[in-house]
Amino acid sequence: PGTTKSQEIIEKTKKHPCYSAEAHHTYARMHLPVAPQCNVQCNYCNRKFDCVNESRPGVTSEVLTPDQALDKFEWVKEKIDQLSVVGIAGPGDALAEWKLTKQTFENIKAVNSDVTFCLSTNGLLLPEYAEEIIQLGVQHVTVTVNTLDPEIGAKIYKFVVYKGIRYEGVEAAKLLLKNQLAGIEYLTKRGVLVKINIVMIKGINDHHIPAVVKKVKELGVFVTNIMPLIPAPGSAFEHFSQTSMKEINELRNVCQLDIQQMRHCQQCRADAIGLLNEDRSQEFRMCNRQTAE
Ligand code: CLF
Ligand code: SF4
Known about the structure:
The protein is α/β, with parallel strands linked by helices. The protein is built from nine helices and ten strands. It has helices spanning 2-14, 66-79, 98-109, 126-136, 150-156, 169-189, 209-218, 245-256, 289-292; strands spanning 28-31, 40-42, 83-88, 116-121, 140-144, 157-162, 165-168, 193-200, 223-228, 273-274. It has a seven-stranded mixed beta sheet with strand order 9-8-5-4-3-1-10. Strands 2-6-7 form a three-stranded antiparallel beta sheet. Helix 4 (126-136) links the parallel strand 4 and strand 5 (140-144). 47% of the residues are buried. It binds FE(8)-S(7) cluster and iron/sulfur cluster (SF4).
């Protein structure tokens, strides 16, 4: 039975547009924006800002209930044949809203057994929910790990809210890191394919990224995805310059020696739909559902 399961993961991964560079021209993903709240405040994130012309993580034009999410899934599935992955990537944190995330996957599971589930998280609550994630059949999990150094983390994270207590500075970063590393290891040991997203912030964590990559490799992750900072309007990093793709690629080339690098990330919106390089989120807004049918 073990081999059947890993065979199944290999087959699904071949059709996962983020985990397989070859798949991204052929297979589509949809994000279901069911998780509005977050338990961390990253200095580069501003979820309040929502503009239809903008594409970056955290942005969505609508937040759905798990029932609306099922409705949207069925609509999109009917229209996009190549849909292979349903992901939950906020607009807050998928695990900070675990009940909603779980209910959404369960709703879809009840009507479809082929689609691959994917989720993206800051990792704070992974120790709590890793086992349930596995039980649900989620085999692809992304964790954003920007640093191993709490001093650097204190510059990236404004605060962390864990079990009702708010932490700041080095203490917040230490707690986040501890939970990220424990959660990642739990998942990889049980066969989940973990992808690590790293936001490159010049002057803050850029020189330290190769050390992050080495550490997560040791924990058994599948791929790392180094992404440029997008200085979100209204975020604490709004005046930072955007890291160039040249700088990103140079860093990826260094890290490639340790582990495979994702090079085709589009830094998707929380409601992105379609192939990675086409965004059909506006076409599939639920307010268009009636007219589109
Ligand atoms: Fe979505 Fe992320 Fe799953 Fe892909 S996106 S939850 S792993 S299905 Fe992909 Fe988009 Fe980059 Fe994310 S291109 S931002 S890596
Ligand atoms: Fe924004 Fe994600 Fe950071 Fe939460 S964890 S503040 S949603 S970037």
